[in-house]
Amino acid sequence: MKLTVYHDGQFWVGVIEQVMKSKLSVYRYVFGTEPSDPEVFHFVKYRLLPLMAQSRHDGIEIVQKREKKLNPKRLQREVAKTLKQKGISTKAQEAIRLQFESAKKERKTFSKMQRELLKEKKREIKIQKAKAKHRGR
């Protein structure tokens, strides 16, 4: 699991990347103002698991590479390089995009159903009024 906190131009955002059984799941959390170290620790300790539990997406399939032993100096250089990187990985961006698209589809189907119900209700009221007029009331 990896937490990346970055500034997207307007807000400070935390992106959690979790790899489980060759599937990458990504969760996005907006901090708002720049979070201090205790705020990030509090988020990890108390809010991270509920955030992951309420999310319903499955994640995207990834191909895992076999990891080989690295020279400690090379490992240190790679850690420094990843710390210098800004933003999130492209796989994480792809997972967030897929998550947004699935949520968008759900919203569209729900709103369409609501519109249809409202139309049907208005139609029923119209029919009731017409019947009442026909009866002379």
| SS field, number of helical segments | 3
Oligomer: single chain
Q: Can you give the mean pLDDT? A: 85
Strand order of the largest sheet: 1-2-3-4
Largest sheet: 4 strands, antiparallel
Q: What spatial form do the alpha-carbon principal axes imply? A: elongated
| Residue fraction in strands | 15-25%
Order of helices and strands: EEEHEHH
User: How many separate domains?
Assistant: 1
Find the structural class using helix and strand composition: alpha+beta
Q: State the low-pLDDT regions, or none.
A: none
Q: C-alpha Rg, in Å? A: 25 Å
Please give the alpha-carbon distance between the first and last residues: 69 Å
How many DSSP E strands? 4
Helix content: 55-70%
Please describe what this structure looks like.
This is DUF2992 family protein. InterPro entries: UCP021328. Pfam families: DUF2992. It comes from Collibacillus ludicampi. The protein has one domain (2-134). Strands 1-2-3-4 form a 4-stranded antiparallel sheet. The longest helix is centred in the C-terminal third of the chain and has 45 residues, at 90-134. It contains 3 helices and 4 strands. The relative contact order is 0.12. By secondary structure, the protein is α+β, with helices and mostly antiparallel strands. Helix content is 55%, strand content 20%. The mean pLDDT is 85. A hairpin with a 4-residue loop joins strand 1 and strand 2 (12-20).
